[in-house]
Amino acid sequence: MPHIVLKGQIKDKKKVYAYVDSLCKELGIGRMWSKAIFITFKTVIDDDNQGNCWGDAKEGYVDISIARNSEGIKIPHDQMMQTLAHEMVHAKQYLRGELNGWNQSWKGKKPRNYSYEHAPWEKEAYAREEDLYDYCWRANGDIS
Predict the structure, then answer these.
(1) Is 71 part of any domain?
(2) SS3 for 142?
(3) Domain assignment of residue 144, yes or no
(4) Tens-digit pLDDT profile for the chain (144 aa)?
(5) What is the pTM of this model?
(6) Total domains in the fold of the chain
(7) Cα(128)–Cα(85) distance, rounded to whole angstroms?
(8) In sequence order, what are the residues at sequence separation of 6 or more whose Cβ sits closer than 8 angstroms to the Cβ of residue 17?
(9) Reduced 3-state DSSP string for 10-64
């Protein structure tokens, strides 16, 4: 499994570590031993997003931020965990070299001017987040 670093305040850190481990396995990045995933839980994120992800396949890292509040309202823990599943799909995309933020390429091709909701990397993340959350968090609610 990639080296996981959790930062910031979040309840049930042991359970969150187990959740991230399960997500890594489901996303096919569980054996990327030389990679690192940094996950920071912040009060708020720029632009009031609930989460964001940046990574570099060559450097072997991904940096994920998850907000605890959005638009002045506390985000429920389960919603933060589903957002984490969404961002972990992006982590997989970065670590496997599918998404490259430096040259703005998707699977080796320059993307067209996609709107956010039509970008293929976002379509994949939205399509998978709920099932990943259900399988890795809800179905394993007793992981510790």
Answers:
(1) yes
(2) coil
(3) no
(4) 899 999 999 998 999 999 999 999 999 999 999 999 999 999 988 777 899 999 999 999 999 999 999 888 999 999 999 999 999 999 999 999 999 877 778 898 887 777 888 889 999 999 999 999 999 997 666 544
(5) 0.92
(6) 1
(7) 8
(8) 4, 6
(9) CCCHHHHHHHHHHHHHHCCCCCCCCCEEEEEEECCCHHHCCEEEEEECCCCEEEE
- Please state, in angstroms and rounded to a whole number, the distance separating the CA atoms of residues 103 and 76: 35
Residue at token pair 């389960």: 78
Q: What are 114's two structure tokens?
A: 């996609």
The boundaries of the domain holding residue 87 are: 3-138
Q: Which residue has the tokens 């998404």?
A: 99
The CATH number given to whatever domain includes residue 27 is: 3.40.390
- The answer to whether residue 91 is domain-embedded is yes
For residue 143, tell me if it sits in a domain: no
Task: Name the maximum alpha-carbon separation found in the chain.
Answer: 43
Tell me the residue type at 134.
D
